[in-house]
Structure formats: C-alpha cells, structure tokens
Specification:
The chain has three helices and five strands, in the order ααββαβββ. The chain has 99 residues and is α+β, with helices and mostly antiparallel strands. A hairpin with a 3-residue loop joins strand 1 and strand 2.
Amino acid sequence: MGGFMQPQGHVQVVVGLADFGLNPQAALDRPRWQVVPGDEVLLEPGIPQATALFLKDLGHRVRYEAEYGFFGRGQAVLRLGEALCAASDPRAEGLALAL
C-alpha cells in the first residue's frame, strides 16, 4: 500500500492486533476504510451500513467501493514467544510462511 492509504492501513491493522487482540490474519482480513482528500470516506464491503450512516451524519460523503485496490495489501509476521504467526492479505495473491 502507498499514498494516502499506507498510514491509514497500518493503523487499522495495528488497532486490530493491539486493541482487539486479533491474530495477524484476522487483522488483515477486516474490512478497511480510507479517508480521501476532501470530506469523502471510502468503505469496503463488509463495513456495516450503520457505520456509513454515522459518518454521513458527521458530514462525510461516504461511498462503498467494491474495488479492493483502494485499500492496500499487506503481509505480516508476529512473534508469539518462540513461535511465529504469519498472515497474507486476501486482497492480493500471496502466501505467508513463518519458518
């Protein structure tokens, strides 16, 4: 991921790991959002309609975007003690292996 999405995507994955206790694969699997220049917020399918309505009530223009290319791709390896837990983003081709 790059551009506007890079810091937003990183924060979303870290929040999944640190705040919600998700494993790396679950954190990468979660639907993402992206704030774009102006007052628009792009949402991936899977983000609840109630969230979109809440954002609209705050004054944002909200658009569901079916094209996953807007939301970045990532891979992760997390050390859990002596073990490694690897994950690969479903938005891209790939496979994560922890050896």
